């Protein structure tokens, strides 16, 4: 049990690494529903009696399918997010499953629920019910995924018969088909309003993919192809662009892609927990189903810069010149006799000359002052 605990710890660390390395929106995604079809318990060497079941998984498009457990020491967590992963991503430190994945796929292709109970019973030579078929199939998977041994003498006869058939010489292995996938690259792209942003390249195993664009910018945004034509459906290898209107402010848009046909999740496909903080066991699909994988990417843009305008040169009009006007001065007519002035006219004449009476008065005052000053001077000398 100490070795088991150490192994479980290694499994947890490996699963966390795998979950963080999985590409976003590239493979099918799902959640564990918690629904189970229970089988018989099986006795395993070193583990004792162990419960078996088919576990429900719901893909992102709502499709339900059944899966088997491929990690014996890890519990299933209801609601756990799961991502489709290649067999190389199986988080098992023992590497047992990685060395023989084709054996597990052969089991899934030749046992329940792929093969109906009556047909499987004829092949094995016993009358199997659903619980026995689930138990024998799950025990055979654990034999290759975890390297555990089935204790024949302590298990039911029909379960043992099925187990021996699935792990016997008829199991020659089966190669896995490429997983269904849908991916847009790059995850983000930036540009300017009024210009194409991208390209975003479509990578998918589906026959066709529907694409759309959503934005909250309030302006028109189109999804166009390499020729600038609006596009709603693409195929593997196509390139699409986001084209925001030239009058848009800075904003962003989301391109959504959904596979419409030819997308199949084959039996034997692994689903690994994608939340490294909440460990859950890895599941393997027990049946084939069609699905519609989805992917999203974002485009961002800035507002188109205002055009830089060069001001028109200003010219100053030359001043309008008016030719100088010359005034001809006509001298007054002279007469030999001065004009006669009447007495009434003298009264009304303007005073155009300086009056001499003020000057004479001032001179008289000065003269008197001088005389006084002279008299006073003589008196002082006599005294």
Automatic annotation (TrEMBL):
Low complexity bias locations: 302-335
Signal peptide: 1-26
Keyword field: Membrane, Signal, Transmembrane, Transmembrane helix
Region (Disordered) location: 301-344
Name of a matching Pfam family: TED
Gene3D superfamilies assigned to the protein according to its UniProt record, in alphabetical order: 1.10.150.480
Ranges that cross the membrane: 356-377
Residue ranges of domain Thioester in the record: 66-171
Name this polypeptide is given: Thioester domain-containing protein
Organism, scientific name: Longimycelium tulufanense
Organismal lineage: Bacteria, Bacillati, Actinomycetota, Actinomycetes, Pseudonocardiales
């Amino acid at each position: 049990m100490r070795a088991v605990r150490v192994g479980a710890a290694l499994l947890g660390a490996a699963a966390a690494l795998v979950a963080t390395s999985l590409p976003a929106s590239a493979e099918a995604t799902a959640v564990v529903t918690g629904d189970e079809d229970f089988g018989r318990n099986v006795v395993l060497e070193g583990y004792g009696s162990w419960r078996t079941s088919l576990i429900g998984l719901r893909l992102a498009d709502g499709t339900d399918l059944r899966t088997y457990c491929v990690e014996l020491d890890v519990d299933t967590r209801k609601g756990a997010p799961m991502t489709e992963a290649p067999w190389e991503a199986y988080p098992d430190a023992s590497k047992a499953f990685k060395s023989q994945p084709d054996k597990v796929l052969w089991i899934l292709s030749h046992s329940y629920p792929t093969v109906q109970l009556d047909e499987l019973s004829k092949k094995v030579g016993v009358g199997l019910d659903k619980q026995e078929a689930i138990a024998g199939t799950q025990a055979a998977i654990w034999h290759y995924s975890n390297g555990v041994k089935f204790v024949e003498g302590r298990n039911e006869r029909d379960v043992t018969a099925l187990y021996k058939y699935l792990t016997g010489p008829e199991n020659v292995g089966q190669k896995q088909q490429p997983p269904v996938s849908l991916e847009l690259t790059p995850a983000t792209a930036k540009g300017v309003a009024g210009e194409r942003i991208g390209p975003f390249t479509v990578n998918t195993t589906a026959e066709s993919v529907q694409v759309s664009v959503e934005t909250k910018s309030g302006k028109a945004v189109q999804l166009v192809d390499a020729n600038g034509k609006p596009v709603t459906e693409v195929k593997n290898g196509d390139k699409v662009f986001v084209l925001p209107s030239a009058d848009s402010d800075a904003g962003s848009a989301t391109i959504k892609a959904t596979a419409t046909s030819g997308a199949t999740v084959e039996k034997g496909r692994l689903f690994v927990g994608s939340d490294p903080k909440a460990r859950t066991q890895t599941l393997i699909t027990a049946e084939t189903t069609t699905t519609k994988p989805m992917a999203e990417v974002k485009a961002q843009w800035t507002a188109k810069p205002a055009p830089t305008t060069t001001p028109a040169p200003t010219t100053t009009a030359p001043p309008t010149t008016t030719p100088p006007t010359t005034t001809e001065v006509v001298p007054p007519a002279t007469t030999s006799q001065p004009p006669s002035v009447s007495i009434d006219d003298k009264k009304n004449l303007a005073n155009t000359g300086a009056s001499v009476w003020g000057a004479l008065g001032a001179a008289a005052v000065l003269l008197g002052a001088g005389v006084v000053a002279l008299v006073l001077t003589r008196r002082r000398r006599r005294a």
